[in-house]
Amino acid sequence: MSTTTDSANGGGVQIQQSRRLPDFLQSVNLKYVKLGYHYLMTHLLTLLLVPLMAVIIIQASQMNPDDIHQLWLHLKYNFVSVVICSAFLVFGSTVYIMTRPRSVYLVDYSCYRPPSHLQVKYQQFMEHSRLTGDFDESSLEFQRRILERSGLGEETYVPEAMHYLPPRPSMAAAREEAEQVMFGALDNLFANTNVKPKDIGVLVVNCSLFNPTPSLSAMIVNKYKLRGNIRSFNLGGMGCSAGVIAVDLAKDMLQVHRNTYAVVVSTENITQNWYFGNKKSMLIPNCLFRVGGAAVLLSNKPKDKRRAKYKIVHVVRTHKGANDNAFRCVYQEQDDVGKTGVSLSKDLMAIAGLALKTNITTLGPLVLPISEQLLFFATLVAKRLFNATVMPYIPDFKLAFDHFCIHAGGRAVIDELEKNLQLLPVHVEASRMALHRFGNTSSSSIWYELAYTEAKGRMRKGNRVWQIAFGSGFKCNSAVWEALRNVKPSPNSPWEDCIHKYPVQTVI
């Protein structure tokens, strides 16, 4: 049997047979077509008004001065009707303007780059693991195979506490790691945007495994002396997809609170979550998780559109937690000797595939051109009515998106999404290179990938970006952004002094 490294939720799973995402060509269900129908019905009024307005404009363009004079006389002798219609028009326009969703802009973001002395090479990692004395020979060999096939390079970072012999995990060391990552990203973000911390109205922090008291969000409030009425949130235990959840929460808050900024901080903390046991399914995070974090500045101020990089278009969240297998497929627990770690189920990839399928069939009607939706519908109807062997048509998401930021949880997930979504190597290049350079940085990995695309000079005005991430629970979440200009990398980008080295050939 072959050994494959599979990963989602910011980790991977090493199992003794090859497991992959379900083949979407075999598993797409006709019931998902109703999502497109629902979207069509929701926007039916708009679709009907567009041709009506076109007819009115054409007719108006053909009017001569006599026609206009006759129209004026008609309105003059029907003054009451004109006033009533005008009142309804003004009232309707006011209601529409007041209730329509406000545009939310991504002004800028910053990814933390750790100092070079925290880098760890393969050989150093293995030698250090051996010298701790906590791992038997089977576990050491297992970790060595994981590293060889992981897609990680020789320049990823582990926290300070893990560089000591023996390692020194502690609450104080974990706080220090959190401060370095969060404050490092935020300092750079505030410097690049010239936004004062006192101007921040909403703060959302997500970190899955480290949730001290006071919270991480309180640490930020204390450090930057944020205002007393700030609306702060601290999300824990939500895995590597929590970055999209945090953005969605901030977006919703900006729909309610006018003329303000929201900051989202996405990170993971490794110091106290290193596993020192020999259970194979719990050893994967040691090999893949690395230090990283990102801070994102969002705004609902119309004036910020001129300087913002992106506008948020859609957020689609899928939760499979009602299913017991999905709920337990990424599970923090103790092993047989009482050592705590995150256990990854052998069914992880299959569950991730089901979550992804549901997510993209919800997202598809929102982003795909009508031609793709019609082809998708037609082939499904043909399969149902005429020939059971007809293969369902998988929509071409390359027609909807210009760039893809697939969570860099591990090489296997990137490989399978590339295959199932029929992407080209250039579409997954950012994900592979982020994994190679920085490792699995959990919920912040999608921002390192976006920064890679910008550093390569590929982001043009009007381009659409699809960020997709998996998380424990089990969740699959997507965020869609539209570039408002030709986006250049911000100062102190994590790729600033090394982008010329990429792409590199990764281990296959």
From TrEMBL:
Catalytic activity field: a very-long-chain acyl-CoA + malonyl-CoA + H(+) = a very-long-chain 3-oxoacyl-CoA + CO2 + CoA
PANTHER family, per database record: 3-KETOACYL-COA SYNTHASE (PTHR31561)
Superkingdom per UniProt: Eukaryota
Location of the protein in the cell: Membrane
E.C. number(s) listed in UniProt: 2.3.1.-
Transmembrane segments: 37-58, 79-98
Keyword presence, Membrane: yes
Catalytic site positions: 240, 319, 403, 407, 436, 440
Pathway(s) annotated for this protein in UniProt: Lipid metabolism; fatty acid biosynthesis
Sorted UniProt keywords: Acyltransferase, Membrane, Transferase, Transmembrane, Transmembrane helix
GO CC annotation, single: membrane
Protein name: 3-ketoacyl-CoA synthase
Occurrences of domain FAE (ranges): 96-385
InterPro entries in the cross-refs: 3-ktacl-CoA_syn, ACP_syn_III_C, FAE1_typ3_polyketide_synth, Thiolase-like
Domain named Beta-ketoacyl-[acyl-carrier-protein] synthase III C-terminal: residues: 402-482
Family: Belongs to the thiolase-like superfamily. Chalcone/stilbene synthases family.
Main location, first listed in the record: membrane
Signal peptide: none
CDD domains: CHS_like (cd00831)
